[in-house]
Amino acid sequence: MMPSVKAFAYLLILALFWNCKSKQQQLEGIQPSGDIIATSDFPKTVTPKKSERPKGMPAIPDTTFVDLKNYSTDFVYDIKYATTDNFLKSQVYECPECFLRLKTVQALMQANQDFLKLGFRIKIFDCYRPLDIQKKMWKIVSNPDYVANPAKGSIHNRGGAVDITLVDSAGKELDMGTAFDHFGPEAAVDYVNLSEEVKKNRKLLQTVMSANGFTVLRSEWWHFNLNGASNYKISNEKWDCR
Ligand SMILES: [Zn+2]
């Protein structure tokens, strides 16, 4: 009798110990989310309204730099400064990424939703630009007509500006009259000697962007500043290339 009671107690202790150990192993398998900016745990296709945060998205200040790709898959990317296809003829970004302040991302996503309803979507040429990159560009072209002087910085350095155009449902760019970073009077939004189609396309871009809190730069049809973004600090925060 006694040996079987002992054996039963022994088995019970062993089972309890095993259960504890496996729970410990489960807990050890859960990794902390790590750096807010670089995490890939963010929902991919959420469209948060201004006042609400998608389920599972950590509460972070809306001035935090975030990766647009972690918030939406609805954009088309052509990050020109990560290639040599730009007016500098020089690749100044190591890799094509679009980081912006969270508030800029939210406003941009809302604008894109409006464009999607009309059969278009935003194509992105440039987003946040670290100050060191601005200095690099200034070194290549030290002309304030083409590059913002890093001593003053630009809204790109503050995470509140985007350079964009529109593409149709087939991915074809709408005719905006000039290429991105065309430096000439034709790039100005008020330039009159443009076809009716170009005027209509530019107007569409500006109307929807301004309804979502952005203001176009009058000399560049592609450049939009989030209203109030001039209050953001100039930053030199950099992203890791994946
Ligand atoms: Zn710009």
From TrEMBL:
Annotated EC: 3.4.13.22
Reaction(s) the record says it catalyses: D-alanyl-D-alanine + H2O = 2 D-alanine
Binding site for Zn(2+): 156, 163, 223
One Gene Ontology term from the biological process aspect of the record: cell wall organization
Keyword Ion transport part of the UniProt annotation: no
Record carries keyword Aminoacyl-tRNA synthetase: no
Purpose of the protein: Catalyzes hydrolysis of the D-alanyl-D-alanine dipeptide.
Protein name (record): D-alanyl-D-alanine dipeptidase
Taxonomic source organism: Flavobacterium agri
